[in-house]
Amino acid sequence: MKLNWFSPLPPALTGIAEYTANLLPCLCSKAEVTLWTDQDTWDAALERHCEVRRFHCASVPWKDVNRADLSVFHLGNNRDFHDRIWQVSRMHAGAVVVHDLRLQDFFWGALSRKPGGPSEYIALMDHVYGAAGASAARQFVDGTQTLDSLILSFPLTEAVVENALGVVVHTQGGFNLVSSHTQASLAYLPLPYPAAPDATFQAWNRRRNRPARAPFQLVVLGHIGPNRRIISLLQALGSLPAKNDFRLQVYGIVWDEAHVRDKIREYGVEQLVTLHGFTPQLDDAIADADLAINLRFPSMGEASGSQLQLWDHALPSIVTRTGWYAELPEAAVSFVEIDREIEDLRQHLGAFSRDPEAFAKMGENGRAALIAQHSPAMFVEGLMAFLERTLAQRPARAFTKCAGDAADGMKSWMSQGVLDRAAESLAGSIGHFLP
Question: Which of 46, 101, 251, 386 could hold 187 in an S-S bridge, CB 3.0 to 4.6 Å?
Answer without folding.
Answer: 386
